[in-house]
Amino acid sequence: MASLQIHQPFPTPMESWPEACFKAYDIRGFANGDGTGELTPEFAYRLGRALATYLECESFAVGRDIRDSSPALASQLMAGLADGGVRVLDLGIVSTGCVYHACWTLPVNGGVMVTASHLPMPTHNGFKMCRGTLPLAGEEIQELKAVFLEGEFCEGSGEIVDTPHMDDYIDAIIESTGPMARKVKVAVDGGNAVPGPFMVQLLDAMGVDHVDLFCEWDATEPNHGADPTRPKNMVDLGKAVVEHGCEFGLGADGDGDRIGAVDEAGRFIYPDRLIALLADDLLKDEDRLPEDASDDEHLRVIYDVKCS
User: Fold this and answer.
1) What is the dihedral sign for C-alpha 139, 141, 143, 145?
2) CB 214 within 8 A of CB 195
3) Domain limits, the chain
């Protein structure tokens, strides 16, 4: 790793930085394709320097979504990391799940996904960060903010390496699920966001019969927002399920880390019920449970805030 030489390259007063964008679970704010807004390329570069200093990492994975502001933010974030002595693996356009998978399977000390998830693509962006294989959250983000505002960063000479990873991630999903037990027909709605083409690729590889809605990338969100937890965004999907005789429909959010569902009648299934349905199915499969599954501790289901 590069030597930790400290310097202060940014004399800009800390009052000019949008401190409120440092949230409990990520960094989010207004960001436009022309580089204006709260999260600017300058912000992204400084964040890269702060991450390199705070995490003292040697290597990091970075992915991004399709927002107009994402290329510049990702580029400057990676430049900041590299100037802090970090070897950066550029995953390109991927889902957030792909970044998480990279944190587990590639030789990195963590990762960042440039995205604002389900927030409007034309106006918002953000950064989801991992330290090792765990999300950076809570007090850690506040500590990172302090380093960001202080502006005293380690300096080094890293590099940025193109490292496509989405195909490997899809292969891992297929390997973990195994072959389909029977033919299934579903409808999917990509919301014109990152997951669309990858959902199609995955379902094709699994041999699933599928009807596709809005699976082409378009950051202007010409059809509806990429938030499948809101019933209004699932209306078209519900109609397609009924029209084409599908068993159910799945909608994805802006970065592919959450889904929404409709049943065979096109009725919206709230996420709370969906997680209960999945948990019930999982716990019924005795082959997946440990031998001492009679212990209540092994029958607990852990899920995060995105499930509700």
Assistant:
1) negative
2) no
3) 19-167, 179-281
Long-range contacts made by residues 204-208, C-beta under 8 angstroms, separation at least 24?
Answer: 205/170, 205/174, 206/174, 206/177, 206/180, 207/179, 207/180, 207/183, 208/180, 208/184
Q: What are phi and psi of 125, to 5 degrees?
A: -155, 180
Count the neighbouring beta carbons within 10 Å of the beta carbon of residue 82. 22
The catalytic residue among 16, 70, 117, 176 is 117
* End-to-end Cα, the chain, rounded Å: 41
191 with 214: CB under 8 angstroms?
Answer: yes
Q: Establish whether 70 is a catalytic residue.
A: no
CA distance 78 to 160: 7
CATH of domain 19-167: 3.40.120.10
Which tens digits make up the pLDDT trace of 85-135? Answer: 999 999 999 999 999 999 999 999 999 999 999 999 999 999 999 999 999
**Per-residue pLDDT tens digits for 4-13:** 343 444 445 4
**CATH topology assigned to domain 179-281:** Alpha-D-Glucose-1,6-Bisphosphate; Chain A, domain 3 (3.40.120)
Q: Hey, do 19-167 and 179-281 end up sharing a CATH topology, with the first three levels equal?
A: yes
Q: Which residue has the tokens 């999903």?
A: 173
